[in-house]
Batch of 2 targets.
Target 1
Amino acid sequence: MRNSRTLLSALLLSISIILLAQTDPKLRPSEVYVLMRDAVDNNPREERIAITKPYMSRAIKTDLSDIEQFYLAELHFWNFMPDKAHEIYSKFLTRDDSLGRACWQRVLQIEFVAYEKAEKVERAIEEFRNKFSPQPRDELYMFGQVYNVGNKYAQAGDHQKVLDLVNNELDILDYEWPYKSYLLPVYFFSSYKELGETDLAIKLLKDARAGLQKKLDKRKETVLDNDPDFARHSERVEGMNTIMTTRLSYNQSNEKFEDAISKMNNYIQRMGQAMKKLPEVSIASATRSIQKLPWTLLSKDQEGDASSSNVDGKSLSYHYNQETDTLYFKFELFDGFNADAPAISVALDIDSNQENGIKWYGSNKAFKVDLMLSFGPKRDGEKYFGYNGITDAIGIKNRNWINIKQGNLRFYIDNKNEVYYLAVKKNDFAPYSTSVNLIGSVGSNSIWSDDIGKEGTYSTIEFVK
Ligand SMILES: [Ca+2]
Ligand SMILES: [Ca+2]
């Protein structure tokens, strides 16, 4: 036994030496692609490019068939070489088969991400739909493009455009496959929320669920003598969205429907919870006694540096009344005053320790936050509903702005001078602190727009004992 094992080892060793001697035999791009994919799959923790790049030199690059040229483009695509990938994919855009379809999707992805041609990509979505019908082999269809362009509009606050993009995609899909685009109302739920259209988002999801269930029931009526393979267009593998590499059986395909339907059930439930009406909050007019408090300036901010929603912060001041333990903040704006849906927040480092806390989500990412005061109501008739309270790192992460304390902030508005005031008991957020660091933020409709306190800078309030 020992002898045979030794013999085997010697044999293996000599084989490895022979293999080493033939340095890097050249392979077809599709073969290199499989090696890269497996390497990524087997090293999920490593940076992808570090794993895939060494394989690039193995690929044969000349005299290739169309499909091998496509795989060569994929190699470039996955190694962040957009120009070379784009050049090859572009050769096949006139084709109307799966290869043409995949090349269109890749070209649009490159043009959006690497070339920043968002408008061109948006126009091309319709062109793609005219050229290619949805089909089960192509799970993505225009998902990636609607997602990219939609995100751009969502960030710019143009939520109607987002809804139009999603609707156009959903209109054309046919329930023949659990296309990824059916989840677009989930990904863009905040846009539906902004427009008061949460019911519509849920309805779209319910329609998709019903359509897929019907299709699945029908599929299950078919009894198959054998279980044929069904080539699928794409499959996500540890960060690499590969194309035309997966084969699913008929029953495995049914499982894909079941997975999608169960996912949708979860989302529908969660969206319903998120729709629960926010509490009523009150807004008072700023009295003269508040305006005349002995304000101390904490921070001034530049004009014209607001995000797309255009609420432009100018300054943040404070006054602390020790007798009543009340801390007042005064927010002045250059632009974007919104009496119907004001939004302000104070991000606090309550232990004067910037080593802990969560990274601020606004522009001042270097500032670390322990607690945040937030006030963001929206007018509904004669009343206001929205956020009034305190959140911690977990709340900030989950966008739940009132997970620590609710309804404890007082808000005053000066419509004439376009100034916001906020009052809070120090005891509510930092009873024992003698010093807190902070930055202020302004926005509207519960959407952040501008920080007062930028690039790692912050103000400090010392509380005299
Ligand atoms: Ca500003
Ligand atoms: Ca801290």
Target 2
Amino acid sequence: MHLSALHHVELCVANGKKIASYFTEKLGYSLRAQRDTVLSKQWVVGSQKSTFVVTEKKKQFQQEHVPFSYFSAPLRQVDSVFNVALEVKNLESVTERMQNVGGKLFHPVTEVEDQSGKVRYSIVSSCCGNIVHTLLDKSQYKGSFLPTFDETFTIRGEEKITHIDHLTYVCHPGESPGIIQWYQSCLGMQKFKTNPTEDLKEGLVIKDGVGMRLRVMDYWPCAESGICNSDPSNGMDETSLKIVIAESLLGKENLHINAFLDGHGGPGLQHIGLSTLDITSCVDSMSRKKVSFRTPPAAYYRNKWKRNEIEAAGYDINTFQQLGILIDSEADTRANKDNQDKFLLQIFTLPLFKEETFFLELVQRKGARGFGAGNVTALARSIEEERQVLKNSNAVCNI
Ligand SMILES: [Fe+2]
């Protein structure tokens, strides 16, 4: 079996059917499994190599234990993406290391079995907001998801999303070094350069009216203590896990980061980058299904550098503007001719929940390892513009 570091991401929402339908009806995901227990209703949706679990908690308090069930709400009782489930090689060791650096053990190592084999798991809190990690050892399991879930293979034609490109956490100013240290200690993750000029100690600092700092980390292929992965030689290997940490610069609060912290009730998982091999047809198809994307400022498409980048990459400027797709040709690496054909295409959805919290990003990479450094300013501005529009119009939800 082809192991991935990231097994699935779980959302806990008030209306599970609605969010599960968003994935299946609008994003092209397939319903892979379901479960209805005394604690919750759950929908497992998948697209090629990405899997989400949508959990709708039942209101009545239940004492019963249900395998793989744990809910971690933010301080505010709002919909939240709270569980980053990981496959690990040494379950006991990773569980213990997380506890040693302050992770709270919500569920000890336990074995669950069905006709497809055994899965062992534990659940431990992370050091960032309400994010928890279900740690999984599936080495003795042949089923497609997890025991106790009813598997329903309803592949819905073409699944346009391939895998999860990255997860982005938001935290308070100054907290990101501690978060990175925590993951380095527990999972052997390492800092990842968002562009060749980035100072790893400082991260990517974006001033100019944005006031944001990004730090990125990815897996470290440590057979003894790290996350399972198959190709450590390639930094953009789809089986690896990349986590971006975003925080406001001290004294220069970023509006959209603050909006997340306020809406969510503290740090947590703000957005997920989903990879596609053809972002143009993907966005076109999703737009027809009424997925609402953030609209970049029109000035972005008037910028001669961006126009050149779009054309050099072989795309049509008007199509990009109509769809709202952004391009980053890794401007910081332009001096290197080997990198001149490398680019990143990206676009962001509006928030999925009632609050201005979680959203999705679509990403198409052609050789680019960065996260659109050249686009961050434009994107942040578009997000802030959108926030003002939403605030003024009181329109909050697009699904
Ligand atoms: Fe992102």
